[in-house]
């Protein structure tokens, strides 16, 4: 068994008090020390006040530290001032890999997202536990600092139950259980470097919020909400405004407004209710000039009215990254300023002596496609710096150079079309969907695909081969760190077409995040194909770019993936998204505060 | 019967997209049920292709079209050819007459609200298939009617059958949208009204203009 490579295995769990957005205040810890054959040797229990400056167990290269959602344990390591262990194994990451299954494609079936906590994982592996423990009750009490209601021994017992079951889960993951094949511990250890160590560091760092301004907006919430609604809710002044004065959305009144302005078509859910997610608003954006603003308003009010983002006592937004939370292994982060409307990112303000920096990989997914497919023409066009210009030339839309083309209105419009085209091709869209996305006749969509196939034949051959092999092997894995997607019968082929690009992007982010953390350049946030930093000087800026560039190149087998500066904020500058609606929305918020005299004219 | 329209004839179909407000005004008054789900194009096929009992809208004035010109256009990457409406002038100017189909459409429903546009023959009515299909369409205005091919029996026509119990299915709840709107949605982008339309370019073998 692979565990025999280690002299000791330590299965560990911490209990801690925590406020929303804050860092853990450790209460207790239980650790089982096992030998290389996973036989129990010792139990270590520590209570608050008993923790030393180093862990009470070995964390060197002879030891494997094991836990469920180990990022939480690693955050406790950070707050206790302990060095991270050399090798860690996150049971949660292993469970996510084992159960990452692409179910049969049933677009009309509504599937509930399965929980993947320790109890669920244990249940799947036939491990019983917690029968005598009020798990949710104790967990909540400990988190809120009410553990005394249960007492020290119950808290210890609760913690130890998790450790006992985690140890058993480890045994079963390593040897396999029922239809779950044995996991490859080398891969889990590799993935855990990111999902536990890097994620713990990044989440602990968080994003700096301008708390003075945040508090001002919260104090003036009603006025801010009223101003935003007055500006962006097109139904205000009518008989049935969509938003109430306190910022509550009414689906019924929205429907009345749609009727009133003559929008007789809107996507609906299976239930019959209007579909109100981002996709629906984006799809219907051209139906009425006010739709975009209304969409922005919905996203922004979630932050202002319900203050949905966790901000710690030190003024930092610490969202959960949920590593490997999606099928393609991209993060599934929630409750961050990057999950709200782009205008709300302006609550982010870096200290005067820091450099706020947002870097992203240039058309990351196209670069990955070029690298993995080995298509020389695609690689050349990618390396030219503007793949969309290359596509426009391919379609015969322009003979201008990229710079001149981008400067014209026609070029800007065509650029958007080329983005939709490339996205659609990556996703394996058919002629009809692609044409709809481009707003063109199916014959035009078909003609564009034909030209794309003629220009990039190796890419198309590779793409077809990827899906064919995946269907035969009933599994597809990411190209760099082997994250698996298990395939049921009749999967959505489009997910398979897109998997190499999405999982490749996730790998790039993981590799860069690990190296950045090791270099002491801990990111403040990871966002799809971008990374937010809070750095000290220009040297660190260049170092961060270099690490991202190298990570891109390594994941892409030598093809250099460009890194662009989207935001560079110096001298306490505020984060400002470039989109017009985001600028406008933020100006409305600042205008209200200025109107109160709460903010100077130049502030904000 | 040969009623091939001459260039002087009025265009067979004018698809005029009404403004949002005028669309609204022509609908029932605002209510929670006033917004219908995104309307996708209706299928277009003959009455026999329904392979089920069918009702056609009883109002020929409101939900039956005049004679319209159609062409089928092959698109690489799509299994079936795309049916387009085409202005008669353009059709006769650019296309051989044997690829232009001239027929009427009527709003039709299968049991329980599955709507489609039913092809109603308007030419070559001496042909027994067309003749029996037209007869079935006429009957379907008031009765749940099914047209079944008799080819297997050696007859070149449809057998017209009626539902044994006409109340076996609820009467169709016809959509509130006008027939023009339904046609507009169904043939959105598939309406050849200029000589630069991609579908016409495809049919005459001209190069596509992607801009």
Terminal CA distance of chain A: 60 Å
Find the structural class of chain A using helix and strand composition: alpha+beta
Q: What is the CA-atom radius of gyration of chain B, in angstroms?
A: 18 Å
Largest sheet geometry of chain A: 5 strands, mixed
| Rg of chain A (CA only) | 26 Å
pLDDT < 50 runs, ≥5 residues of chain B? 1-34
Distance between the termini of chain B: 43 Å
The proportion of residues in beta strands of chain A is 5-15%
Mean pLDDT over the residues of chain B: 83
Average pLDDT value of chain A? 91
Strand count, sense and closure of the main sheet of chain B? Answer: 7 strands, mixed
Oligomer: heterodimer
The helix content of chain A, as a percent range, equals 40-55%
Tell me the structural class of chain B. Answer: alpha+beta
For the record, the count of structural domains of chain B works out to 1
Care to count the β-strands of chain A? Answer: 15
Write up this protein.
- The complex is a heterodimer of chains A (604) and B (211).
- By secondary structure, chain A is an alpha+beta fold.
- Chain A has helices at residues 70-80, 91-98, 118-124, 135-143, 152-175, 185-205, 211-219, 221-232, 251-260, 278-283, 291-306, 364-373, 376-383, 387-394, 402-407, 409-426, 431-438, 442-455, 457-473, 493-518, 538-555, 580-596, and strands at residues 8-17, 25-35, 40-47, 63-67, 87-90, 101-102, 207-208, 265-266, 316-317, 355-361, 475-477, 484-487, 525-527, 530-535, 563-570.
- In chain A, helix 1 (70-80) packs across helix 6 and helix 20 (493-518) runs antiparallel to helix 21.
- The model of chain A has no long low-confidence stretch (mean pLDDT 91).
- Chain B has helices spanning 20-25, 60-63, 88-94, 128-139, 179-186, 198-204, and strands spanning 36-37, 43-46, 55-56, 68-73, 82-86, 101-110, 114-121, 145-149, 158-162, 191-192.
- In chain B, strands 2, 3, 4, 5, 6, 7 and 10 form a seven-stranded mixed sheet that branches. In chain B, strands 8-9 form a two-stranded antiparallel sheet.
- In chain B, 31% of the residues are buried.
- Classes of the chains: A alpha+beta (604), B alpha+beta (211).
- Strand 8 (265-266) of chain A pairs parallel with strand 1 of chain B.
């Amino acid at each position: 068994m692979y565990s025999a490579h280690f002299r000791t295995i330590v299965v560990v769990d911490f209990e801690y008090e925590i406020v929303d957005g804050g860092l853990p205040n450790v209460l207790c810890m239980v650790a089982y020390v096992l030998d290389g054959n996973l036989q129990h040797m010792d139990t270590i229990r520590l209570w608050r006040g008993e923790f030393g400056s180093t862990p009470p167990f070995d964390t060197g290269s002879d030891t494997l530290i094991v836990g469920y959602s180990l990022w939480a344990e690693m955050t406790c390591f950070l707050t206790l001032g302990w060095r991270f262990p050399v090798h860690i194994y996150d049971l949660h990451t292993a469970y996510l890999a084992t159960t990452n299954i692409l179910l049969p494609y049933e677009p009309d079936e509504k599937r509930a997202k399965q929980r993947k906590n320790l109890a669920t994982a244990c249940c799947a592996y036939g491990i019983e536990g917690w029968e005598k423990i009020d798990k949710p009750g104790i967990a909540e009490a400990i988190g809120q600092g009410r553990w005394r209601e249960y007492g020290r021994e119950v808290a210890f017992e609760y913690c130890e139950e998790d450790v006992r079951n985690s140890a058993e889960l480890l045994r079963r993951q390593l040897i396999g259980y029922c239809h779950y094949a044995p996991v490859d511990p080398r891969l889990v250890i590799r993935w855990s470097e990111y999902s536990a160590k890097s994620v713990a560091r990044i989440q602990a760092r968080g994003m700096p919020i301008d708390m003075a301004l945040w508090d001002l907006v919260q104090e003036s919430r009603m006025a801010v909400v009223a101003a935003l609604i007055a500006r962006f809710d097109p139904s205000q002044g009518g008989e049935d405004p969509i938003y109430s004065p306190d910022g509550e959305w009414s689906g019924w009144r929205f429907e009345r407004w749609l009727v009133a302005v003559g929008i007789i078509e809107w996507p609906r859910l299976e239930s019959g209710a209007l579909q109100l997610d981002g996709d629906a608003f984006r799809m219907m954006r051209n139906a009425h000039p006010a739709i975009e603003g209304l969409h922005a308003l919905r996203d922004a009010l979630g932050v202002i009215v319900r203050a949905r983002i966790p901000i710690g006592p030190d003024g930092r937004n610490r969202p959960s990254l949920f590593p490997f939370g999606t099928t393609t292994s991209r993060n599934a982060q929630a409750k961050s300023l990057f999950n709200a409307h782009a205008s709300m990112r302006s609550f982010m303000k870096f200290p005067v002596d820091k450099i706020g920096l947002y870097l992203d990989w240039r058309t990351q997914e196209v670069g990955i496609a070029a690298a993995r497919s080995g298509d020389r023409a695609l690689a050349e066009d990618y390396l030219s710096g503007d793949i969309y210009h290359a596509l426009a030339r391919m379609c015969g839309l322009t003979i201008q150079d990229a710079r001149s083309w981008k400067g014209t209105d026609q070029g800007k419009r065509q650029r958007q079309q080329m983005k939709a085209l490339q996205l659609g091709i990556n996703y394996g869209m058919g002629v009809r969907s692609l044409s709809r996305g481009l707003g063109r006749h199916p014959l035009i969509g078909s003609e564009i695909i034909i030209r794309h196939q003629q220009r990039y034949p190796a890419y198309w051959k590779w793409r077809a081969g990827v899906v064919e092999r995946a269907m035969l092997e009933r599994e597809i894995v990411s190209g760099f760190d082997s994250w698996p997607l298990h395939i049921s019968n009749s999967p959505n082929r489009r997910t398979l077409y897109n998997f190499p690009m999405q999982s490749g992007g996730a790998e790039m982010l993981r590799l860069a995040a690990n190296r950045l953390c090791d270099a002491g350049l801990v990111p403040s946030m990871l966002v799809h194909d971008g990374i937010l930093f809070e750095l000290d000087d220009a040297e660190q800026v260049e170092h961060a770019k270099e690490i991202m560039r190298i990570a891109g190149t390594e994941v892409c087998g030598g093809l250099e993936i460009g890194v662009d500066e989207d935001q560079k904020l110096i001298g306490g500058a505020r984060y400002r998204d470039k989109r017009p609606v985001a600028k406008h929305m933020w100006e409305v918020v600042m205008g209200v505060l200025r109107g109160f005299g709460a903010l100077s004219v130049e502030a904000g | 019967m040969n009623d091939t329209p001459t260039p002087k004839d009025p265009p067979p179909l004018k698809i005029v997209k009404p403004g949002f407000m005028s669309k609204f005004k022509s609908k029932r008054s605002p209510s929670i049920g006033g917004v219908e789900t995104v309307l996708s194009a209706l299928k277009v096929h003959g009455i026999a292709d329904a392979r089920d009992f069918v009702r056609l809208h009883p109002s020929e004035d409101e939900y039956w079209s005049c004679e319209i010109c159609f062409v089928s256009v092959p698109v690489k990457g799509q299994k079936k050819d795309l049916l387009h409406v085409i202005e008669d002038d353009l059709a006769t100017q650019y296309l051989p007459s044997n690829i232009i189909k001239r027929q009427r459409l009527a709003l039709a429903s299968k049991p329980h609200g599955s709507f489609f546009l039913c092809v109603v023959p308007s030419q070559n009515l001496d042909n027994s298939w067309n003749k029996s299909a037209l007869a079935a369409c006429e009957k379907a205005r008031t009765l749940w009617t099914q047209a079944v091919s008799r080819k297997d029996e050696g007859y070149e026509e449809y057998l017209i059958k009626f539902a044994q119990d006409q109340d076996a299915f609820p009467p169709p709840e016809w959509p509130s949208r006008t027939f023009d709107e339904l046609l507009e949605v169904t043939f959105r982008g598939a309406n050849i009204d200029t000589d630069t339309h991609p579908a016409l370019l495809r049919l005459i073998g001209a190069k596509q203009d992607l801009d």
